[in-house]
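Sequence, structure tokens passed on for absentees:
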Amino acid sequence: MKKIMIIGSAGSGKSTLAKKLEAKTGIAATHLDALYWRPGWVATEREHWRAIQEDLCRQESWILDGNYGRTLDIRLKHSDTIIFLDINRYVCLARVVWRICKSYGKTRPDMPAGCPEQFDWQFFRWIFDYPKNNRPEILQKLNALSAEKNVIVLRSPREVANFLKGI
């Protein structure tokens, strides 16, 4: 495990897992949200975003956490280990609500300055619909890669904890 990507719904625990893996392995974790967003929640331009990820993936080792479906192909191609946090949508929603309550109006450590935590119904809808809209395609891609990559699907917080114990 030298090039690890972590994907999953918002609230699935991607950033937390990335930090814990960084501590256990010594491999630097990069939170893609911190690179994608500019102050005021302004998105990075598409071609520049692809170039940023290509540059990150050229490094000798990395842990990248984040979804970004339009650039998933870059990370899938370069990774040796793919961790999919396939966590129940209600757990994810509860975690995001807790995160907002705890950090509302403040910028989280894994986000860039000028992107304060906020309440967004569209974001909640995306999380709720993730199992229907995103999960099937992700599982299909992971199944196709399972012979050549180390694909790990973790379906509960307990499975995540057990995975970390085994590292």
In short: DSSP finds eight helices and seven strands in the chain.
